[in-house]
């Protein structure tokens, strides 16, 4: 079955104040992909996600979006959950109202709310098991509850592409397992790119891997082994979950060769 591409990235470099953090990135993202983005701290994972989200402008290279029908478009339908949310908890706004902001127009202006918008909000709150918090002020929530609310805001518009930067941050253990199961369900309707450090958990849910450490190396299966991390110059810890929690640590030599993503 042929799948349409949604994102085409070619020789992309991006960073801050004219200095690249990621460089020469090549990647094509297809409809239905669920890509786990891994890499060391400071390797550029968040910069990569923010560039796709339009928060950071590329320094060079090409970033093209396509509709599910295969047409090149300027503004895709994206959902985005940042790693650290800077939302002002003292702002007098309810959970329901926060999630409603996920229905902002593409140009950043509030359109007129439709009769079924609140229904859509309550459906996603119910799905995330926080419908009982709908009228609660955002400033009274725990960190885990806040993360659920911001995830609800990211998916309420039913985006084509969902960008997640460490979505399990602040999540309790119970919700973390529920979160990954929910993402598998969402992946049936939307493409997902997810940054994660949980290398013991994500292979059970993702479909492929992108290791970001300055540049990007793509692996078309979810298998993560020390050998893969070494070949793709991804010097991070491999954590294994078992009866006794433990970590398998590997020393990775600097790989001078440049591997182009598939």
Q: Which SSEs are present, and which pair or pack?
A:
Elements: E1 5-16, E2 19-30, E3 34-38, H1 45-53, E4 60-66, E5 72-73, E6 78-81, H2 95-100, H3 117-127, H4 143-155, E7 161-165, H5 173-186, E8 191-195, E9 208-213, E10 215-219, H6 226-231, E11 238-240, E12 246-248
What is the global morphology?
Answer: globular
Number of domains: 2
H and E order: EEEHEEEHHHEHEEEHEE
Separation of the first and last Cα atoms = 18 Å
Task: Give the name of the CATH architecture of the largest domain.
Answer: 3-Layer(aba) Sandwich
User: Please, how many helices?
Assistant: 6
Please name the fourth-level CATH homologous superfamily of the largest domain: P-loop containing nucleotide triphosphate hydrolases
Strand numbers in spatial order across the main sheet? 6-7-8-3-9-10
Rounded mean pLDDT score: 85
Describe this structure in words.
The chain has 262 residues and is α/β, with parallel strands linked by helices. The chain has two domains: 1-77 and 159-262, 3-Layer(aba) Sandwich (Rossmann fold), CATH 3.40.50; 89-158, no CATH class. The protein is 23% helix and 26% strand. It contains six helices and twelve strands. It has a six-stranded mixed β-sheet, with helices on both faces. The protein is globular.
